[in-house]
């Protein structure tokens, strides 16, 4: 190993600042890196962030029930062909033709009474005349209309009273309204007229007070229900038996706005027929 005798020829290591030395070291290290690594780093710095492409679907396409192939790895050739045909037909239609079905597609358009009033000129003129009247005049018109309605109801009641005297409401005609089996039974069977009379009075009083209501009664025996059906047909009422709460009930209702009882009740009619039969015998 040689000994350097002339130290003046050597460079002073502390003559260069430490910052310049570090920069020189970094520059030398960068020059020693491979060119490929530098290119990859440069491309990564220049290119923006790559994102996964987003699949866009046609919003106007309607899913065909039974022809979709989503979520399945394989599907048959016939199914694929049907799916392609369905998509082809959808591509030929307009977007509004293949839109989703709404509830309004099944609801029919209707015109209210007030809208119809505004659409007709004559009715609109009457409405405008009514509005232009004073409060007293409007009240007078309303009272007159109410009196007309009451007069109509009274006329219907009078007509009902007249129908009670019509031959079609006589005892014989009312009895012939019964079914053949009921007529034969009432003619041959001994009927408890007292029980039948009480049922008639109860049903008749109910429908005189409430002609539009329903009458319900829980009768004990089937024979009493049979009498109830017979007197309902005699009074031109509708009856039906049903089960409720473990018991057999009978429901009776009137199909007409008013109730007109027959001139002769069924119990009286049967009593007269029995008396006439005894006299004949």
From TrEMBL:
CDD domains from the UniProt entry: R3H (cd02325)
Pfam families linked to this entry: R3H, R3H-assoc
GO molecular function, one term: nucleic acid binding
The R3H domain, residue ranges: 196-247
Domain R3H-associated N-terminal: residue ranges: 72-188
Protein's name according to its UniProt entry: R3H-associated N-terminal domain-containing protein
């Amino acid at each position: 190993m040689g000994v350097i005798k002339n130290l003046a020829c050597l460079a002073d290591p502390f003559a260069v600042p430490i910052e310049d030395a570090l920069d020189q070291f970094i520059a030398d290290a960068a020059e020693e890196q491979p060119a490929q690594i530098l290119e990859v780093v440069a491309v990564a710095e220049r290119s923006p962030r790559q994102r996964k492409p987003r699949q866009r679907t046609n919003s106007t396409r309607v899913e065909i029930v039974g022809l979709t192939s989503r979520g399945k790895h394989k599907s048959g050739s016939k199914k694929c062909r049907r799916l392609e045909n369905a998509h082809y037909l959808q591509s030929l239609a307009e977007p509004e033709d293949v839109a989703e079905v709404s509830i309004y597609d099944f609801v029919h358009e209707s015109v209210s009474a007030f809208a119809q009033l505004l659409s007709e000129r004559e009715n609109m003129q009457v409405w405008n005349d009514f509005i232009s009247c004073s409060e007293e005049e409007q009240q007078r018109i309303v009272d007159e209309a109410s009196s007309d309605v009451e007069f109509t109801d009274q006329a219907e009641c009078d007509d009902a009273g007249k129908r009670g005297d019509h031959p079609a409401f006589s005892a014989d005609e009312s009895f012939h309204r019964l079914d053949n089996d009921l007529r034969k039974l009432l003619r041959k069977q001994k009927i408890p007229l007292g029980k039948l009379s009480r049922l008639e009075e109860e049903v008749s009083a109910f429908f005189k007070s409430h002609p539009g209501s329903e009458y319900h009664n829980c009768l004990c025996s089937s024979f009493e229900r049979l009498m109830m059906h017979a007197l309902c047909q005699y009074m031109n009422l509708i009856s039906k038996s049903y089960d409720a709460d473990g018991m057999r009930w009978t429901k009776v209702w009137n199909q007409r706005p008013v109730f007109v009882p027959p001139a002769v009740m069924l119990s009286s009619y049967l009593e007269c027929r029995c008396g006439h039969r005894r006299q004949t015998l």
